[in-house]
Structures
1.
Amino acid sequence: EPEVTQTPSHQVTQMGQEVILRCVPISNHLYFYWYRQILGQKVEFLVSFYNNEISEKSEIFDDQFSVERPDGSNFTLKIRSTKLEDSAMYFCARGQGASTDTQYFGPGTRLTVL
Amino acid sequence: DQQVKQNSPSLSVQEGRISILNCDYTNSMFDYFLWYKKYPAEGPTFLISISSIKDKNEDGRFTVFLNKSAKHLSLHIVPSQPGDSAVYFCAASGGFYGGSQGNLIFGKGTKLSVKP
């Protein structure tokens, strides 16, 4: 059973459109992470989120990206104006936030930008 | 800047034999290392981890070895099974980029094929 679920499993959008990817934790954890994997490349950290605030973000996570937990449960990643290079698998993970913490990943959302 | 490197993109092993997957890292501040297994169109699945204070951790058929002086870790799978065929990612945390939040730095992965 996955530690987190993600919706949708696949999202196709036109360049310049906004997309919202959702992550639903199954258990009550405080730390969440978003990662992405462009086809054929490694998994890359985007942002970590703790207690309704961004904890840390990578240089990939620019002003086009935002995260929030609108209802205290679902955890969303928004891309405001998608670009072709945003096409990737996006993974949500949950953890405890410590440097010696195991993170458990969701099944991912495949984003295709046309 | 690859802080975590998996230099072998692929590995083919016969069923029942040992699979050895290697990983090198450059950041001596990393204090926690993990191996994930990934099938196509799925998320990474946690396999096994090791803290920097240890040099070996074992869980069933999976053993991870850490050599801090060489900044090298390896995953041993014994015996290998066809169901082990997947991409294996090495990841590390605790470095300057990970900090206390535990953000993971991944290698590029090694595709393991176990032939019956």
2.
Amino acid sequence: AQSVTQLDSQVPVFEEAPVELRCNYSSSVSVYLFWYVQYPNQGLQLLLKYLSGSTLVKGINGFEAEFNKSQTSFHLRKPSVHISDTAEYFCAVSEGGGGADGLTFGKGTHLIIQP
Amino acid sequence: NAGVMQNPRHLVRRRGQEARLRCSPMKGHSHVYWYRQLPEEGLKFMVYLQKENIIDESGMPKERFSAEFPKEGPSILRIQQVVRGDSAAYFCASSPRGPGSDNEQFFGPGTRLTVL
């Protein structure tokens, strides 16, 4: 069975500072990895995804993430955050190979941007 | 191209009543997933359906919960005899392809169920 761990429930950051949101996963098979963002009272929006190929993935709104197979991590980064980045961020994993599962989500990290 | 639609956005029920949540997937998507989000928690997978078929309901509680995705019309998540612990946000997602491929799921805005 797969699982996702987001170690930080909240991350406060000053505006224009860099940020890293951590995500570790466990799975016995190859995986696809996703980061979603959820703004208050809204659904989830895909930021970026890793399927295969280059381990550095660029997404929307200036975010990027790096897949590290040896450390089973997929941390999300942004070099300079904006007040509008305040939201809940979810890391998710889906197993490859035809498993009939939905996505497995972490508990989320609340990114708080301070002016 | 309209996104995933869910209605109602907010639903209030008294204990013992039935809750019926609707999800219309994106045009051309035949794969639908339901998730539940409890306060301070991530989303938990409940059920995966294709048209007229339940493919994986491993995340669904064994009693009171059911889901369908008929040939015509939206997918329905039905909760009978609701209890306070059912209060949560229920999200629907759709995908043009099934698991094991580029399974990008597109999420609806959710239905927030409150059980009094």
3.
Amino acid sequence: KNEVEQSPQNLTAQEGEFITINCSYSVGISALHWLQQHPGGGIVSLFMLSSGKKKHGRLIATINIQEKHSSLHITASHPRDSAVYICAVRITGNQFYFGTGTSLTVIP
Amino acid sequence: DADVTQTPRNRITKTGKRIMLECSQTKGHDRMYWYRQDPGLGLRLIYYSFDVKDINKGEISDGYSVSRQAQAKFSLSLESAIPNQTALYFCATSDPSANSYNEQFFGPGTRLTVL
């Protein structure tokens, strides 16, 4: 049983397309974390949010607490956006639970 | 320079050997974590530490031990490695006083193969 479900598992897009990655969770949370894992394995923090919406460059993250759902959007996608995107939720004060990731490939 | 470093980056070892993975950070964070990542599974917490005197088991601590030698250093040991410990291991740090989210910052990972 996984508290965090991501969809789709794999996604291929053409350069320039608008991309949406979804994250659903089954329990109450105090925060949600979007991470990017590069092909070489390194993990970078993109957003942390507990309500509403955040934007950074071409990336937008939204969360709906009532529906237990978050989305990560990428506008004007580029091949350098190709990576695995991971959603993680903080349920207790100290631990995060991670989704299995969405593997994104953006084709030129 | 990277804020969170891990050594080694890659290691191949044999069943039964003792292995230590090291993590160092220059972020000044009190909290440190060890995770493992397996194909098709999300990151899973092995151990975490809130300060030098505090060590806590995570979801999958069996077969592992840790040592917090200083605020900046957190080591993970496999006392007797077995093949199903083959995985990608990540160290992470956080500072809940910096923001209410307790955002975590990850090292580059150590790829461990146990033959």
